[in-house]
Write a structure and sequence with these properties.
Chalcone isomerase; 6 strands; 24% helix; 24% strand; globular
C-alpha cells in the first residue's frame, strides 16, 4: 500500500512538472530546460549585455564541450540564459542560442532567440530569429569567436 501511495504521489508530481513545462509558452524542445545542466551554481550579477540576475542552462549536446572547452560545439547544442526581474523575482526573459548546421556559417552557425514573459498570461512569447534579425547578438558573440561564440565565464560562479 505504501508503495502504491508513493507511486501515485510520484506520478502526480511528474504530471504537474510536465504540465507546467508544457504550458510555459516555450517551444516543446525548450520547455523542460530546468532539467538541463546549469552553468552557474548561483545567480550571476556580472555585467553583460543581459543585465540583472541571470542563470545559464545548456543541453546534453553542449555539456562535453562546455567541460572540455574543446571547440567547436556540436550541431544541436543549445544554451539558454534566464534574466530574472529583481523586483518580482520572476524570470522575465530567456535568451537562447542553438547550433544549426548551415544556418549562418559566417557566424559559427548559431541561431539566436529571445522569449519574453507576457504580462497577462505569464507565458513566454518570442522565438528563434533569422540571422538578419540577430545583428546585436552576433556583434557581441563575435568577440568570443575563439570559444565558438560562447562565454564560459559563468562556470566560475
Amino acid at each position: 500500500m505504501k508503495r502504491l501511495i508513493g507511486l501515485v504521489i510520484g506520478l502526480m508530481v511528474f504530471g504537474l512538472w510536465v504540465v507546467s513545462a508544457a504550458g510555459n509558452g516555450l517551444p516543446d524542445d525548450l520547455a523542460g530546460y530546468l532539467s538541463w545542466h546549469r552553468g552557474n551554481s548561483q545567480k550571476s550579477f556580472a555585467e553583460s549585455a543581459h543585465p540583472i540576475a541571470k542563470d545559464i542552462y545548456f543541453n546534453d549536446t553542449a555539456a562535453e564541450t562546455v567541460m572540455s572547452k574543446n571547440f567547436p560545439y556540436a550541431e544541436g547544442t543549445v544554451f539558454l540564459k534566464e534574466r530574472t526581474d529583481i523586483e518580482t523575482l520572476m524570470v522575465s526573459t530567456i535568451y537562447g542560442m542553438r547550433k544549426v548546421a548551415g544556418f549562418d556559417p559566417a557566424n559559427g552557425d548559431w541561431q539566436y532567440a529571445v522569449f519574453e514573459r507576457e504580462g497577462s498570461s505569464g507565458k513566454f512569447m518570442g522565438g528563434w530569429m533569422e540571422s538578419s534579425g540577430s545583428a546585436m547578438c552576433i556583434g557581441c558573440h563575435t568577440t568570443s569567436k575563439d570559444k565558438d561564440y560562447t562565454f564560459l565565464t559563468y562556470l566560475a560562479n
